[in-house]
Amino acid sequence: MSIYSKLFEIQQNLKAPKEQYNKFGNYAFRSCEDILEALKPLLANQKAVIVLSDELTNIEQRYYIKATARIIDIETGEQIANSAYAREDENKKGMDLSQITGASSSYARKYALNGLFCIDDNKDSDTTNIYEKESQKQQNKKYCCEICGKEFEGFKTKNKEYTAEQEFILKRKKFGQALCNDCIEKRGLKNE
Prior knowledge:
Blueprint: H1 3-13, E1 20-22, E2 27-29, H2 32-46, E3 48-59, E4 62-73, E5 79-87, H3 97-117, H4 125-140, E6 155-156, E7 161-162, H5 164-175, H6 181-186
Antiparallel strand pairs: 1-2, 3-4, 4-5, 6-7
């Protein structure tokens, strides 16, 4: 069996659940160590090993950790590698320099493993926290008259119900500004 076939089998069977929890950010995540623990029995079954390595690189006066995850077929020596980078944060409060490097290494290794084993990170903190925050902002966003600041509440017609956001958009298209009914009336505009 080729290294590609072995990698395929591992990718199909790998389950790396998110068993870590970040209380500050309020999200579950998987660590590099979680991925490695999930890989061990699959690697043994396929007669393959993982070797992780780090390299410090300087790109445009910034230091990056380049992590490489390499799967090696112990029967043939064939190998496949994937690399990922993480930038060292110069001003990480509460951490000394070795901790900053270690955190960058863990992060880069995790993403090197994600790439090599096709691990979906759509629900990891790095992707969903941004989405969840934007989604929360959208839910909490108030749509107001651009003249007086009165909040839109949405409205109903015989056939349809409109949200505050839809009302805001419709009135902006119609009048060039999102105007409440009072401001429309004060300006002598027609609101049909």
